[in-house]
Write a structure and sequence with these properties.
Strand content: under 5%
Number of helices: 4
Distance between the termini: 30 Å
Order of helices and strands: HHHH
Number of strands: 0
Radius of gyration: 17 Å
Largest sheet: none
């Protein structure tokens, strides 16, 4: 799943496959560390701005429209 890969790769959170209870538990335990939560939250915010912001979406749409018009 693309979202799983991008979130995990960017240290922006945890996504686990349904039924992977041991990894889910380990992830939850790791979030007891306030430094880990802060770092992961910062990474998630950067990922949000870089990949999922309105500005990013608008640029992607604009790029696609330009490539179709020029294509």
């Amino acid at each position: 799943n693309d979202l799983l890969d991008i979130v995990n790769k960017n240290n922006a959170g945890f996504i686990h496959v349904n039924g992977d209870d041991e990894h889910l538990l380990n992830s939850a335990i790791s979030l007891l560390d306030p430094t880990r939560r802060r770092v992961m939250g910062d990474c998630a915010h950067r990922l949000l701005e870089a990949e999922f912001s309105v500005g990013t979406a608008a640029r992607l749409i604009e790029d696609r429209l330009e490539s179709v018009a020029c294509g």
